[in-house]
Amino acid sequence: MEALKHKILEAGRVLPGNVLKVDSFINQQIDVELMTAIGQEFADRFADQQIDRILTIESSGIAPAIMAAQALKVPLVFARKRKSLTLSADIYATKLFSYTTQQYTDVMVDKRFIQPGEKVLVIDDFLANGQAVEGLIDILNQAQATLAGVGIVIEKSFQPGRQAIEAKGFRVESLVKIASLDDNQVQFSE
Amino acid sequence: MEALKHKILEAGRVLPGNVLKVDSFINQQIDVELMTAIGQEFADRFADQQIDRILTIESSGIAPAIMAAQALKVPLVFARKRKSLTLSADIYATKLFSYTTQQYTDVMVDKRFIQPGEKVLVIDDFLANGQAVEGLIDILNQAQATLAGVGIVIEKSFQPGRQAIEAKGFRVESLVKIASLDDNQVQFSE
Questions:
Q1: Domains of chain A and CATH, by start
Q2: pLDDT of residue A85
Q3: By C-alpha distance, which of B81, B85, B147 is closest to B119?
Q4: Using CB atoms within 10 A of its CB, is residue A6 exposed (0-12), middle (13-18) or buried (19+)?
Q5: Considering only Cβ atoms within 10 Å of each terminal Cβ, which end of chain B, N or C, has fewer?
Q6: Is the torsion defined by CA of B30, A169, A176, A26 positive or negative?
Q7: Which Gene Ontology molecular-function terms are recorded (chains A, B) (predicted)?
């Protein structure tokens, strides 16, 4: 997606430890026009699938996922990262390991919001080690729903997330693939 | 907003302790068509203001805020609830007390994302005691930005949030006002 590549080169910042900060347009400040185009691009790439709903995880996944849901005219569900005191006990839950915080987080979705047999598109902002996506796939398995595919805004192709998901037989569509962040430079794949 | 009232009566659930659960269409599963209309309604109500940006707080504020930002064609910023290890040290920060969890949470926005003199619309899903909105107003004050007004999806008018914000001289636009949740019944104001 060329508009996204341009924005990453213009406004992304590479920090030590292979960190690409896109908080000025993706995950704290949001460029809503770009995010709307991102949602449309996901809808176009998965136009061959009969998507019933989109699943993402709070917080950074919500913006791209809601725009994809708007373009596909389907409901969105987002997994929550800790148990809210007012959340129903009737939940699908899994654990995610975050390399950023070096901690496990409980993640959950109310069972009412994923039906068995539904075809679900998983959307997230980043794919690196694939922990978040694998957690969402685990929740879909518990719900006996089908994964239609995984839509990622920015893939770090030098980390093992895509391989792990493809090894399970699932399709990954990343709008931008980053081959390397070495020497503080963004190198795209392809 | 009639469509929202209907949805609350149809799909909202009243739990003990004056809790109104709208997690099947607002804050876990999202009815994206309704949320798009909510965003347009905020844009219409604040059409008399020159809004520069929208400010909300993760996670439940993001969906209505991004739809309002889409309708108003302005950027969105969301405050984060705890310090991410990769977040810059250059932040505006405040503390919120949550009556739901009975805990204080640190909330922060990167200083790059609110400019002095900007006219900012604050959006959130619920207004009850007003803690979240007051925290966001504190951040705007630190940034020397101007609050254009506060847009709320669902106001619990029997709790003191609106009064507290109006007492500071600010305008509050709530799409739905709830007068009472007594006897597990939703009673709207007006």
A1: 2-188 (3.40.50.2020)
A2: 39
A3: B147
A4: exposed
A5: C
A6: positive
A7: xanthine phosphoribosyltransferase activity
